[in-house]
Amino acid sequence: MFWPVIPKSPASWKVPPNLLDYEPTVATFSWDAVRGAFQGLPENRGFNIAHEAVDRHADGPLSDRVAIRWLGAEGATLSIRYGELKTRTNRFANVLKGLGIGKADTVAVLLGRIPELYIAALGTLKNTSVFCPLFSAFGPEPVYQRLSRGDAKILLTTERAYRQKVAPLMARLPRLQSVLLVDAREHASDRLLSLPRLMAEAADAFVIPPTDPEDIAVLHFTSGTTGMPKGALHVHGAALTHYLTGQYVMDFHPDDVFWCTADPGWVTGTSYGIIAPLLHGITNVVDEADFDAVRWCRILQAERVTVWYTAPTAIRRFMRMGIEPARQYDLSRLRLVHSVGEPLNPEAVVWGLQALGMPIHDNWWQTETGGIMIANFPAMDIRPGSMGQPLPGIEAAIVERADGGVRVIEKPNVQGDLALRPGWPSMFRGYLHDDARYQKCFVDGWYLTGDLARRDADGYFWFVGRADDIIKTSGHMVGPFEVESTLMAHPAVAEAGVIGKPDPLIGEMVKAFVSLKPDFAPSDALRLELIGFARQRLGSAVAPKEIAFTPDLPKNKAGKIMRRLLKARELGLPEEDLSTLEDSG
Ligand code: ATP
Ligand code: MG
Fold first, then answer.
1. Cα of 191 from ligand 2 centre, angstroms
2. CB-based contact 233:219 (threshold 8 Å)
3. Which of 154, 254, 405, 549 could link 522 by a cystine bridge, Cβ 3.0 to 4.6 Å?
4. Each residue of 218-236: pLDDT tens digit?
5. Which tens digit of pLDDT belongs to each residue from 489-511?
6. Which atom of ligand 1 is nearest to the CA of 230?
7. Range of the domain at 491
8. Nearest partner of 307 among 329, 340, 283, judged by Cα
9. 286-305 pLDDT, tens per residue?
């Protein structure tokens, strides 16, 4: 299907983007120059994310600027200024120190998006301990898995979550030294402590110990879309990528109000929901509540959000509900909308034009890359359905496996493995307890992402699918994304998930699971119409041969369609690890 290019021109900019000339910037780029944006710890003690994100602003002219603008689910609000954030994170670092927690010890957090989560994250980094966020809706088993695999020494949680999920695990977690309860007034035992008590007793001042940029800062588990979640280790030096992408992709300007809707349980919620905006000294909006289209529109308006970072699953929900925020709300301050986490269908990019008054900028990265790697930059024309071009400083290529190694595919528009040249600052430094798996990601001087893509003649990258999801049908390799995007272009379709179903004649048959928009009902006539619609646009080899209607597609807690589950269910196979499934406890 042909989607016209969305051109960018100075006439459409509310402020001139930071990255104006892509090619010359790429040609002269050096990470050393990015280092110049940072202060470093005093007396050459090294480089610590929390110093750059909090203390250097607190000690300078931004001390009174709101760092975190918190919106409680029940209507309460709180603004934490940089100066205050410094004191509170110092206190938390002192709490850890007082408990004998130090460098490289893991501090896990099982909390909703409440201020304590953000203070703990930054305080943990100050203490040079390792911050490990767990998504608050995880049930006991995924919590146990992550705490034990991550060797957590401290866990922060609420009384309720402790009682429901953690208490039964305590005997199986001998290395977990203490649980800190954010809402307990008194200590219950040596292992069960009141965080407010500890914070009240802690000193306001804290000297960040020497921090090597290579010290581990964050342990992040992947979303578990394709299998058992992997623990990715990230270092303090990763902040260079967070800063640069804040500058060039998010296009942060000093007065910006930024809102990243991702939960810190997923990497987007830490890299961009905490670190990147604070590195830039801007105001970071945090909403405690779950998705609610009307509430979200109100937040964009009331908080005067200028840059918004969200995900395809949320955008598709707006589309499905027929909500067009720009018509009913004052979004005059909004300047840029970004999306990540799953492929963004061209339909959704273009929907942004009418519903938000601007296109949606897709970008690509993974837990392993630590930060955005490929993006639609504000000043660059958008080709709807494309992930954009590599960040300056990032070398990306399409490669194929050959002779036990890999070979770069130079020819444009050929599908292959998406690979990155290792060495960018936020690259993961290991998979937790699985060095063999880590080593396997690197072949012939490339990091293989596990995603398939193609690059067009002008350097734009196009997502094809995850290597595990690729369908081999009649000798063709079909990426689910293209088929799903085509189905979504039909007015009846809200969402689609496409899998390969084993077939004795053609290898695999393309099968689509489709959920419909509210005004449409499943019928054989609609099924035939959709098959015809797809055939006309994709050809009969690629179009789905079977379509099943389903009210909802299975998604994980990060909101991603789980094709592996659609497939397992279709084939009656075991569903394997479901710890991150949206509906699991
Ligand atoms: P797991 O590795 O456990 O299966 P996951 O890969 O979903 O889970 P994340 O690291 O959160 O865990 O997600 C990264 C993946 O999400 C990418 O490898 C890619 O498959 C997909 N993704 C992210 N952004 C985009 C995008 N803009 N377009 C297409 N796919 C994307
Ligand atoms: Mg992955």
1. 35
2. yes
3. 549
4. 999 998 877 778 999 999 9
5. 999 999 999 999 999 888 899 99
6. 3
7. 469-571
8. 283
9. 999 999 999 999 999 999 99
Q: How far apart are CA 481 and CA 428, in angstroms?
A: 27
Is the Cβ–Cβ distance between 469 and 563 less than 8 Å? yes
Rounded to an integer, what distance in angstroms lies between the CA atom of residue 577 and that of residue 564?
Answer: 10
Neighbours of ion ligand 2 (CB under 5 A): 222
Cβ of 369 less than 6 Å from ligand 1: no
> Cα angle at 383 between 379 and 388, to 5 degrees?
65
Whether residue 268 contacts residue 260, with contact meaning beta carbons closer than 8 Å, is answered with yes
Assess whether 126 and 240 both reside in one domain: yes
Tell me what the pLDDT averaged over the chain comes to.
95
**Nearest ligand 1 atom, CA 229:** 3
- The number of beta carbons lying within 10 Å of the beta carbon of residue 19 is 19
| Those residues with Cβ within 8 angstroms of residue 202's Cβ, 6 or more apart along the chain or in another chain | 90, 91, 92, 94, 95, 98
Residue the block writes with tokens 């989607």: 3
**Same domain, yes or no, for 199 and 241?**
yes
Q: Is 551 helix (H, G, I), strand (E, B) or coil?
A: coil
Nearby residues of 43 by Cβ (< 8 Å), 6 or more positions away: none
pTM here? 0.94
Of the candidates 583, 558, 551, 517, the one whose C-alpha atom is nearest the C-alpha of residue 317 is 517
**Residue 366 Cβ < 6 Å to ligand 1:** yes
Both tokens assigned to 400: 């194929």
**200 plus 348 within the same structural domain:** yes
CB 499 within 8 Å of CB 226 = no
* Distance, CA of 183 to CA of 200 (rounded, Å): 13
Indicate whether 537 and 459 sit together in one domain: no
With a 6 Å cutoff on the Cβ, whether 116 touches ligand 1 is no
Is the same domain home to 359 and 267?
yes
pLDDT at 585: 45
Q: Is 92 among the domain residues?
A: yes
Nearest CA to ligand 1 atom 16: 341
- Residue 550 within a domain: yes
